[in-house]
């Protein structure tokens, strides 16, 4: 089959040959591409690796940023020592952790973002909530690592909150 490009005035011949697509342009240029290559979707990105809060999933610098955000946005209800208040639960120690063991960090970030602060739920950015959760992990004795806790829900959901091994 011969086709003429409307603006370039170039004639091309398109034909299928042995599973490949051959385009031959007037003037001798030929391009061959496998039909499989042309139709193949990109390979999916590898799934994030499952990890534990004991693997150092946040940095000390991030925990420090999280403490500043906590002091500004959270301390008025949860207290300076994270022990809770009249209508706010504690964010440290066994009472807090027993509700989170076996769950993932992504769920903690999502719940924080969706429900806090109580007088304006959902107004805090995901990054700010991620930094606050890094501070909470630090305050609960989970070790810091070299890199920040990523601000990616899928990756955060691969990090399990576990009791000490």
Total of domains: 2
Radius of gyration: 27 Å
Low-confidence stretches: 10-27, 29-38
- Number of DSSP helical runs: 7
**Relevant CATH superfamily of the largest domain:** Cytochrome c-like domain
Instruction: Give the overall silhouette.
Output: globular
Question: Helix amount, in percent?
Answer: 25-40%
Going by helix content, strand content and strand pairing, the class is alpha+beta
Report strand order across the widest sheet: 1-2-3-4
Largest sheet: 4 strands, antiparallel
Distance between the termini: 69 Å
Secondary-structure element string: EEEEHEHHHHHHE
CATH architecture of the largest domain: Orthogonal Bundle
Would you state the CATH class of the largest domain? Mainly Alpha
Briefly note the CATH topology name of the largest domain: Cytochrome Bc1 Complex, Chain D, domain 2
Please provide the count of β strands: 6
Global mean pLDDT: 82
Strand-residue proportion: 15-25%
Keywords:
Cytochrome Bc1 Complex, Chain D, domain 2; four-stranded antiparallel sheet; 2 domains; 165 residues
Structure description:
The chain has 165 residues and is an alpha+beta fold. It has two domains: 2-39, no CATH class; 51-160, Cytochrome Bc1 Complex, Chain D, domain 2, CATH 1.10.760. The chain has helices at residues 35-39, 60-73, 75-78, 93-97, 105-115, 126-139, 153-156, and strands at residues 2-4, 11-17, 20-25, 30-34, 51-52, 159-160. It is globular and about 50 Å long.
């Amino acid at each position: 089959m011969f086709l003429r490009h409307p603006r370039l005035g170039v004639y091309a011949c398109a034909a299928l040959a042995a599973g490949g697509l051959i385009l031959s342009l007037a003037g001798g240029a030929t391009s061959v591409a496998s039909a499989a290559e042309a139709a193949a979707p990109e390979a999916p990105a590898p799934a994030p690796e499952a990890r534990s809060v004991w693997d150092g999933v946040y940095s000390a610098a991030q925990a420090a940023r999280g403490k500043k955000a906590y002091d500004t946005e959270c301390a008025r209800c949860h207290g300076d020592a994270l022990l809770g208040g009249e209508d706010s639960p504690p964010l440290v120690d066994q009472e807090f952790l027993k509700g989170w063991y076996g769950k993932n960090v992504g769920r903690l970030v999502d719940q924080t973002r969706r429900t806090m602060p109580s007088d304006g739920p959902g107004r805090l950015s995901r990054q700010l909530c991620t930094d606050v959760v890094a501070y909470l992990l630090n305050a609960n004795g989970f070790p810091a690592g070299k890199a920040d806790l990523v601000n990616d829900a899928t990756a955060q959901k691969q990090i399990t909150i576990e009791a000490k091994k």
